[in-house]
Write a structure and sequence with these properties.
The protein is built from eleven helices and ten strands. The protein is of the alpha/beta class.
């Protein structure tokens, strides 16, 4: 009888991760690749297949799976930007007895809580809060995308920094080192030039979100404008978390909200968030949450993962 394997995929705006586990819950293969959240258009479809296929093949090779199209007992994939336009493409990469395709917030929650009921807030390129109670009921807040939402995420931090720099450049906003830092990081001639570059393919969303590092740097150097931007971001993220927690567990609940995403690595954001709401670090990151869901959909609940690689913790 052949071995049974389980697959979890975290496909996001910045990177893609695949984990393969054996029947005992031990992680036996992992792979990493580029972003895969958009599939419209021939080029985007190819990027999606390359990102997912590359991760799965890398993980399968480590697990000792030799089939060109590996088969799994259970497979769960969580994607940024929705799942409906991506599910059918997975059949070109792998097969599974049970397959579950969902959004990235669900696998992030499962990973953050280790599969238990709870609430988590993602502060990555974008932002969202997601919660699930003991009955399996779920609720979300935010996650509306970079045009209408994503307050507190990395893209929004860069957007607020650009706005502050524009106000300074036009002469009606306070002085801030954000202007010089953004120009140095991008090579733009002035902030107006950078603004117009941000509307071009030269700066995809995840690259713009990466400029949140300049906001963090300015704040650590004492820039008051940058500090206010980071504190406001923490307020938005805590508001999302509190809204979801109140609905799932009640307004008097003190259940810690798990935090996921690079924005929470910024000290000012993390400290202010923890001041506003009870918080805790995730048990696992989203890829491991997807793997836990792969076990759950075939009836294996309460699995404790073993040998999870550092990037999955």
């Amino acid at each position: 009888m052949s071995k049974q394997f389980y697959l979890g995929i975290d496909g996001g705006q910045s990177s893609t991760t695949a984990l393969i586990g054996d029947a005992a819950g031990r992680v036996v293969g992992y792979g990493r690749g580029g972003p895969c959240n958009h599939v419209t258009g021939p080029e985007a479809r190819t990027k999606f297949l390359n990102a997912i296929g590359g991760c799965v093949r890398q993980a399968a090779a480590q697990a000792g799976i030799v089939e060109d199209v590996p088969h799994f007992a259970g497979a769960c994939s969580g994607f940024s930007g929705g799942a409906k336009d991506k599910a059918y493409l997975l059949d070109e990469i792998f097969t599974a007895d049970e397959k579950y395709v969902t959004h990235d917030a669900e696998i992030a929650l499962v990973g953050a809580t280790g599969g238990e009921p709870g609430v988590m807030v993602i502060g990555g390129t974008g932002s969202i809060a997601f919660g699930r109670d003991a009955s399996g009921k779920t609720i979300r807040a935010g996650g509306w995308g970079y045009v209408f939402g994503d307050e507190g995420g990395g893209f929004d931090l860069a957007r607020q920094a650009l706005r502050a720099a524009l106000r300074m450049e036009e002469g009606w906003g306070p002085a801030t080192s954000l202007r010089s830092k953004l120009l140095a990081a991008t090579g733009a001639s002035d902030v107006n030039d950078l603004l117009h570059r941000f509307y071009t393919p030269e700066f995809p969303r995840q690259q713009i979100a990466g400029l949140s590092r300049q906001v963090d740097e300015a704040a650590r150097e004492g820039d008051l404008v940058a500090m206010e931007i980071l504190k406001a971001a923490a307020g938005h993220l805590a508001g999302y978390g509190r809204a979801v927690r109140d609905v799932v567990f009640g307004a008097e609940s003190t259940v810690p909200v798990r935090t996921v995403g690079g924005v929470f690595q910024i000290e000012t954001v993390r400290t202010e968030f923890e001041r506003l709401i009870e918080a805790d670090a995730p048990a696992y990151l989203p890829a491991a949450g997807a793997l836990l869901e792969a076990y759950r959909i075939v009836g294996q609940t309460g699995v404790r993962l073993l040998d999870v690689p550092e990037f999955g913790k």
